[in-house]
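input
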Amino acid sequence: MDQEKIFFTFTFLLILSSLVLIIYSAHIIRISHETLTPPSAKIVSVYLCNGKIIISLLLNNTTPYPITINGGKISIVQTNQTILVRPSTLAKEEIINVSAPLLPSYAYYSTIGIKGLICGNISQNKVYISFYCVAVIHIVSYVKVVHLTYFNGTANVTFLVSTPVNSTVNFIRYIQLANDNLSRFVAENLGEIYIGRSFPAGVHNFTVSIEFPIVFCNSLKKGYTYTFFTYLNLTCHYLDENVTKCLQIYYILRN
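output
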């Protein structure tokens, strides 16, 4: 009889200890099903301007730790150009801009393939971010005045033309020079001046001598601000068509 009591008591204690162990384990054991998303990179935009191809790249750090970027390379498939990525520290998201010289062959592409590999570290662990995409090319063409002199009814005006394709400056018309402080015209030429200058792709300067038939003042006074204005006719020569546009040109001169 004593042995049966001992047996049942021992069995009860085992069952009780098992229940306690199960309840305790349920509170301390956690199984994580989280998925870690690796860092990534993607192309935001591609512009042709200022004699360069400019690529904007979005880097996304999806980890809770900063990434030390040691460097990297970006390659343009069609032209075999390689652009180096500078070292930096990536905390979360960041857009970096890289550029390469403009080549004449870009006039033939509406899209380009871009691939790259960026190397870095999280603490002592190596990180590699690779990417490839086909990006649309955005073309930026512009003309501006970079220098102007005026005396006795004649102005010498230096223009800068920047296009990623061959271009022709056809003419300028409706030219005015005004004194901003006095709200008065200095000189006017309401006619048209033929230029007919053609340029290859890139950034170029040219100077035009402008005779004003209407003159209100023979010189520019010190301490005054002047505005030069004209319309400029520009033709961009693409592979399959020529596009002509009329540009409004303003130039502020503080004498």
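quick obs: The radius of gyration is 35 Å.
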